[in-house]
Design a protein that fits this description.
3 helices, alpha+beta, globular, single chain
Amino acid sequence: MKKALPESLQHTIDAMLEAETQISYGKPEIYNAFVSPNANTTAVSASGRVMTGADAVREATVNVSKGNIGERNRFVEKIACDYVEGMCFFVIKSGVEIDKEDGTTDNLCWVITYVLKEIDGKWMLVHRQNTRSKP
């Protein structure tokens, strides 16, 4: 039987997913608090752009959040999750309608893979990859 996630890890995953919601409201700093300060932290956007280093990953989150004022119809479908001592991956499918300052709406859907590492007793994001998907 598969063991349950440690409580601290489950709490981090839940909090990270909530922090993703705040990007839709122009508040990237909540999500960015989960980004490991490590220079090897990476992210790959749905367009294939690769960001390397915590500063680049955080800057990308800030740029994505610019002009966002709210959201509607978010869904999150958990696909997979597993961990070994000190490392975790989880995969979700997520979609949302993000309202923009200019009156437009972005309809987005992705499959997102996250890799977390336990650093000094705290779970931190070390990699994230988005792939566009259909709802």
